[in-house]
Design goal:
Blueprint (H helix, E strand, L loop, with lengths): L1 H11 L2 H4 L4 H13 L21 H18 L11 H16 L3 H24 L7 H24 L2 E4 L2 E6 L3 E4 L4
Antiparallel strand pairs: 1-2, 2-3
Keywords: Glycosyltransferase, Membrane, Transferase, Transmembrane, Transmembrane helix
Subcellular location: Membrane
Membrane topology: Multi-pass membrane protein
């Protein structure tokens, strides 16, 4: 990947212009600019294996907040993302089912969450090519913690548009660009 991007940057002669663009947005711009020149692009068939090396909930949360900030700035429609999360979607659909079919909202909520939980587990097994290396109880606890953090993560991402990355602080701009915040 680095060799590929390096060749493209050398080819374009625009290193200084492209250095403030975030990676996802940069790849989209490469596809547009170099696609017009006849270059071919394709997606990988394998999922990206990301091992952060640290497994604390606080670091997971800060990474998810950073990614949410990036998504919100690169794709403003992301503001609607929380309604596609398990608990919020279950409440909204349960409320609708109660009004339309007169079903009990809590029974619907619990059944919908259970179906979502099972679907996530089946998908995890499919991606990993077999049973995971942890127990089903560990999975259930981790799944519940992750699903219950989504609204807090999203609101934290909206509240503060700056990103702390390694040793620097950056302010995100619309369109996938970032600029470093220098301390005075």
């Amino acid at each position: 990947m680095c060799f590929f991007v390096s060749k493209l940057l050398n080819y374009s002669q625009r290193k200084k212009k492209l250095c403030c663009i975030l990676l996802d947005s940069l790849m989209i711009r490469f596809a547009c600019v170099f696609g017009l020149r006849g270059w071919k692009f394709s997606m990988a068939t394998q999922v990206a294996m990301q091992n952060s090396g640290s497994y604390s909930i606080a670091q997971f949360q800060s990474r998810m907040i950073r990614w949410a900030k990036l998504r919100i700035n690169m794709l403003p429609g992301t503001v609607c993302e929380p309604i596609s999360e398990c608990f919020v979607a279950s409440l909204i659909i349960g409320w609708a089912a109660q009004h339309v079919f007169h079903w009990d909202i809590m029974v619907f909520f619990l059944c919908h969450c259970l179906a979502w939980f099972i679907s996530d587990y089946i998908q995890l097994r499919g991606v990993q090519g077999g049973p995971p290396c942890f127990s089903k109880l560990d999975y259930a606890v981790a799944w519940f913690i992750r699903e219950s953090m989504t609204i807090r993560i999203f609101l934290s991402a909206l509240w503060d548009p700056t990103i702390n990355w390694r040793t620097g602080r950056y302010r995100l701009r619309c369109g996938g660009t970032a600029e470093e915040i220098l301390e005075v």
